[in-house]
Amino acid sequence: MELMLEIAGWAGAVVILSAFLAVSMGWLKAGKGFQAANLLGACAFIANGAVHEAWPSVVTNVAWLLISATALFRLRAGGLTRKAEASPVQLPGVPDTTGQLAVVEPTRAA
Fold first, then answer.
1. Are 9 and 45 within 8 A, CB to CB?
2. Alpha-carbon distances, residue 2 vs 8, 52, 108 (angstroms)
3. What angle do CA 44, 79, 86 make, to 5 degrees?
4. Where are the chain's structural domains?
5. CB burial class (10 A; 0-12, 13-18, 19+) of residue 104?
6. What residue range is the signal peptide (predicted)?
7. Is 87 left (phi over 0), alpha (psi -120 to 50) or beta?
8. Rounded to whole angstroms, how far apart are CA atoms 60 and 42?
């Protein structure tokens, strides 16, 4: 049983890191797939952390799970999609997954 939970912990790490890499590289939008991967990875980390009595990790991953579950619920209800379409915002340090290119025109001296 302990071996299975150890494997689950490593699998959770692979799932979360793969999802983060895919969103960061622009291969995947931060949508349902990304949130589902985070939710599954957090579950695996919670089980693994509990076996090893790594309580700070367990608490962090419970929060991670709740954030992902809330995001999935809101995506399913359509709440996040409508808000994102209404006012797209590009935050610094967050990759642009819209596929649109920004065109910046130089200012002209008068």
1. yes
2. 10, 10, 67
3. 125
4. 1-77
5. exposed
6. none
7. beta
8. 9
Amino acid symbol at 26? G
* Other CB atoms within 10 A of residue 83 CB: 11
- CB-neighbour burial class of residue 92 (10 A; exposed 0-12, middle 13-18, buried 19+): exposed
The structure's pTM equals 0.67
- Helix, strand, coil % over all residues of the chain, rounded to 5: 65, 0, 35
- Taking only the tens place, the pLDDT of each residue in 18-56 is 999 999 999 999 999 999 999 999 999 999 999 999 999
